[in-house]
Amino acid sequence: MLVDPASLAVMGGALALAGGLGGSAVGVGLAASAGIRILGIAPGQRRNVIILSTIPMTMLFYGFIVLLIIVITVLPRITPEATLGLAVVAIGAFAGVVEFFAGWYV
């Protein structure tokens, strides 16, 4: 095999984390811009705007949890002959895409 399965597994975790990061960034930006408009109308809603605009940030934590699960539980079980690395990359990519769109549309 040209690529080590362990490095593919770490790449899958990195893809999950990157999807969570991107979704969080886009979601927080959209929620904060909507919150700024609300503050123009009702300035007393500052606390609610801050709390609600940070909700998309949970996708970052989910991506980090997926990365930790891959590194702690999956990575020690991968042998050099296994094709498990490709499966973990696919799972990480899928989790990253889901986290990105979930953070964007929360």
Rounded mean pLDDT is: 92
Q: Note the total helix count.
A: 4
Radius of gyration: 18 Å
Helix/strand-derived category reads mainly alpha
Strand % is: under 5%
Overall body shape: rod-shaped
What can be said about the biggest beta sheet?
Answer: none
Summarize the helix and strand pattern as letters. HHHH
Query: Ends: how far apart?
Result: 40 Å
Contiguous runs where pLDDT drops below 50 for at least 5 residues: none
Secondary structure tally: strands: 0
**Percentage of residues assigned to helices:** over 70%
Descriptive account of the structure:
The chain is mostly helical and 106 residues long. 79% of the residues lie in helices and 0% in strands. It contains four helices and no strands. The relative contact order is 0.27. The mean pLDDT is 92.
Please outline what is shown here.
This protein has about 110 residues and is an all-alpha fold.
Q: What descriptors fit this protein?
A:
106 residues, mainly alpha
Write the topology of this structure.
Blueprint: H1 5-41, H2 46-53, H3 58-74, H4 84-105
Helix pairs in contact: 1-2, 1-3, 1-4, 3-4
